[in-house]
Amino acid sequence: MKKNGKKHAIIPIFIPHLGCPYDCVFCNQREITARTAAPDTRQVDATIKQWLTTLRDAEVEIAFYGGSFTGIPMEMQSAYLDVAKKYKDSGVVTKLHLSTRPDFIDEEILENLRAHGVDVIELGAQSFDDRVLALSNRGHTADDTRRASRLIRSYGFELGIQLMIGLPGDSRESCVMSAREAVKLEPELARLYPTIVLDDTRLYQMYREGLYTPLTREEAVATTADMYRILDDAGIRIMRVGLKSTDIIGDGGAINGGTYHPAFRQLVEGRIAREKIEPLLEKASSQAEAQAADAGDVSAGEERGANIRRDRTLKVDVFSSPAWFSNMIGNSGENRKRFAEEFLRLNIRYRSDPDIRDGEFRVVVKEDPAEDPA
């Protein structure tokens, strides 16, 4: 990611499971962070120094992840933040960033975070459906998220909202509702995480007992794409979609079900690209059919298939921003393959244009006799 022409980088500091008395059905921090003990301040300092040696000409944030940061003792919060703040004060780090639970936010906590130079607070809302939260053993309600969000914004922090897809009791409708409710809180950023069934969790036991069925990959992609569009249309920066492969560490068998994919974000953004490009290609294809009919090639209503001659086609250039070029093509080229099979009278080329916004597309059409008529 780039901001103001500079690469934007985050130094992650994992504080596994500290501060959280709850046992959410999906949670196994040992698997997610691959750590068994919280780092001390010297380790945090060493981690930051090591990362900084690899980050040149970048805007750098230090982010505390992995547990409920504001649930740990105040003196421990301050000790970690003292280490991070000295890098911010020196100018080598631009922001301090942390994640926590909605029910671990109050005025005293926020005063301390502000005094230590924290800029961004992400809330693990997960859902705005209270039934889903209860079935997931979250220990908080949707109203807790609303209250904490308003308080965070009143103190001048940037707000982030994390949502999960496919929790127990979830549905596509409740996920879409959660995205719409998140927008009402006016966060600056969001993360979308399809639920992954990890070993050594209650969710895994529910899965084994037939009490929980993970989303199929197709269901997860379709629902996440719906949520992504809602958040993106509201101008909310979507920092992550799905877990990175390095976020889930285990000796085989850690991931169960078929929801997880290492390039999940590309699957979602590729789906969004496909749904935006298809109507543009359908219009071009109708134009090609009309031209073919005018030329006496085939009747405009003839079924498309192997008997369609290729000696009258349209050359179609589909443009995206450079950053979205791979999404336009689709993961493993799935969009390109689909369009080639669906639009037989189009000779499609894929190109990038730096003047196009990310997530937007343009189609340029002109008649082009095929080089190899059928």
Name the CATH homologous superfamily of the largest domain: Aldolase class I
| Average of the residue pLDDT scores | 87
Structural class: alpha/beta
Alpha carbon gap, first and last residue: 45 Å
Largest sheet: 8 strands, mixed
Oligomer state of the chains in this structure:
single chain
How much helicity do the residues have?
25-40%
- Work out the count of structural domains: 2
The proportion of residues in beta strands is 15-25%
Output the strand order for the largest sheet. 1-2-3-4-5-6-7-9
Q: Give me the CATH architecture of the largest domain, please.
A: Alpha-Beta Barrel
- Count of helix runs: 12
Q: What radius of gyration results from the CA coordinates?
A: 24 Å
**How would you sum up the global shape?**
globular
CATH class of the largest domain: Alpha Beta
* Uncertain residue segments: 249-253, 299-311, 369-374
Query: What is the fold named in CATH at topology level of the largest domain?
Result: TIM Barrel
Strand tally:
13
Describe, in short, the structure shown:
By secondary structure, the protein is an alpha/beta fold. The chain has twelve helices and 13 strands.
